[in-house]
């Protein structure tokens, strides 16, 4: 059973998700992880699918005139900090829009081995907002990392909060 | 122009603005300037039908004043009514829950935020300076905590629970 990573881009309209997932079902492909959002009125969807159909065949079967579809074979599911030693944090950055905010902030995280596992950015008026889920290796000095993030944020005239995830385990 | 006793609506400022990221200063609730500012804050709240509360930094004043009226919200339970509180401080907070909220100073965005659904807040009434205690739940509790955050220079964006919890409040195409 092979794994494929599928991306779908197109102008948003009712029925896009139904069409894509219907084609996947017709191929016998099983959707595992997936995410979808709207970016400036465009639908952006990414899926990890398993099945007997290979990536090239998936690309053909999902082809639609108003969608850009790609499919790539991937070897196996992978996970950062597989030993369970990672620590989860949520990062918020907000401030005036300017080029380079994401690269500056992500470089600080990467220097400490931090892994961004999810990210949303939104521009509304002059305000740029970045929210990221971050996994840190257990040995990271979080206080020192927060000082570095604050310094970079100040240079961007942006406010930064970095706080541990608070899961409700019931 | 003479300022009416019931205050004048002021412009609500949007983020990014330095005042919205700055901790506000405590006030003397009996100071005539503070009383006038409280009246303006209430007048601005009345002028903003889309919100249930405002904090002084949102009208350009770095003072610890909040105004709220949970009765405007269709899902409110406790409802103290229209109130302005000086130097409010959170005394107790319990029963935390996630809910999607927005802010009149952050137009176009909403997000899931974790807040207490039962709170007790102490403060003082502008004018007399009398102490006041508010017991609030549900929407009113969330609204008051949102305003308290403004007094500490925080936006609801600083409490978003995760990367996928930030949303546009409406869809539009600028192309």
TrEMBL record, chain A:
Q: Enumerate the Pfam families for this protein.
A: ACT, ACT_6
InterPro entries for the chain: ACT-like_dom_sf (IPR045865), ACT_dom (IPR002912), UPF0237/GcvR_regulator (IPR050990)
Q: Where is the ACT domain?
A: 5-76, 90-165
The record lists the membrane-crossing segments as: none
SUPFAM superfamilies named among the record's database cross-references:
ACT-like
Instruction: Note the superkingdom of the native organism.
Output: Bacteria
- List where this protein forms a coiled coil: none
Q: What is this protein called?
A: ACT domain-containing protein
- Organism encoding this protein: Nonomuraea diastatica
């Amino acid at each position: 059973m092979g794994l494929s990573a599928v991306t779908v881009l197109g102008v948003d309209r009712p029925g896009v998700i139904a069409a894509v997932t219907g084609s996947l079902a017709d191929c016998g492909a099983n959707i595992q992880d997936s995410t979808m959002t709207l970016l400036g009125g465009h639908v952006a969807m990414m899926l990890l699918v398993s099945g007997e159909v290979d990536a090239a065949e998936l690309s053909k079967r999902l082809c639609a005139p108003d969608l850009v579809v790609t499919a790539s074979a991937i070897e196996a599911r992978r996970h950062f900090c597989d030993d369970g030693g990672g620590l989860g944090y949520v990062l918020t950055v907000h401030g005036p829009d300017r080029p380079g905010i994401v690269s500056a902030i992500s470089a600080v995280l990467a220097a400490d081995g931090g892994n961004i596992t999810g990210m949303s950015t939104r521009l509304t008026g002059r305000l740029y907002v970045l929210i990221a889920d971050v996994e840190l290796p257990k040995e990271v000095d979080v206080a020192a990392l927060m000082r570095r993030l604050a310094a970079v944020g100040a240079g961007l005239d942006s406010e930064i909060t970095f706080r541990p995830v608070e899961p409700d385990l019931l | 122009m003479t300022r009416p006793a019931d205050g004048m609506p002021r412009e609500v400022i949007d983020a990014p603005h330095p005042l919205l990221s700055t901790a506000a200063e405590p006030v003397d609730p009996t100071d005539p300037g503070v009383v006038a500012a409280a009246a303006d804050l209430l007048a601005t709240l009345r002028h903003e039908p889309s919100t249930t509360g405002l904090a002084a930094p949102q009208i350009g004043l770095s003072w610890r004043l909040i105004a709220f009226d949970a009765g405007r919200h269709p899902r409110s339970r406790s409802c103290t009514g229209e109130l302005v509180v000086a130097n409010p401080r959170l005394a107790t907070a319990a029963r935390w829950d996630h809910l999607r909220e927005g802010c009149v100073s952050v137009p176009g965005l909403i997000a899931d935020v974790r807040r207490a659904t039962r709170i007790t807040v102490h403060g003082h009434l502008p004018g007399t300076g009398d102490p006041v205690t508010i017991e609030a739940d549900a929407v009113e509790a969330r609204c008051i905590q949102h305003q308290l955050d403004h007094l500490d220079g925080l936006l609801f964006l600083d409490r978003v629970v995760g990367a996928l919890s930030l949303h546009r409040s409406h869809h539009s195409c600028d192309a």
